[in-house]
Specification:
By secondary structure, the chain is mainly beta. The strands form 3 sheets. A 5-stranded mixed β-barrel has the order 3-4-5-7-6. A 5-stranded mixed β-barrel has the order 9-10-11-13-12. β9 and β10 form a beta hairpin.
Length: about 220
Amino acid sequence: MLALMLTAGSATVGQAQPQPPPPQASFWFDPTQLPTFTGTVERYLVNPAGETDALLFREGPQVVFPPDIADAVREAGPPGRTLVVWGIRARQAPVITMLAFAVAPDATLGVVDRFYWRLGGRARPDAPRIAVSGAVRSPYFAPQGQLAGAVLEDGTVVILPPGGADAFGGLLRQGARLAAEGPGFEGEAGRALVADRLGEQPDALRPVPAPTTSGSR
């Protein structure tokens, strides 16, 4: 179920987690004092600029991180493997901002040197237009928990401009049918777009409202 919440400080839901070793002295903060979340990596997600900046746990939550550490995170937790994340969970949505990660609670930590607070990856100016359709695997959230789009069953990320999700919330829920068009990225790493037209079927798309001045970007 999408709304599944992983309990802070637990290795799996409802189970105690061993205490990890002290961090290296060079770290400017102690990541072992943060809440921990452990899950099985289902897939990695790209943004409309073609950067990998998120993953989905099979248990439900979305985890966000800066694109420049994506290779290290993927090496520690390839799809199908367990990954331990130290970070901060949004108050009202299953999205976690990663600040440290490891293959196991007692393994060497990889530490993120900054918060990844903003929804990343606007489409590039020369980005091709992409048309997608399919069933929604889960809503897609900005790091602070705002509804920002959807992830289709095949891993395609559909992002709406700030404020755009307000008019399409019913199409972004788990199991809904969703079709979208807009500029984005498509490659071996995945597919993502910023939708400017959205609907339930490809032949019944509606324009997405222009971005609002307030938003997570």
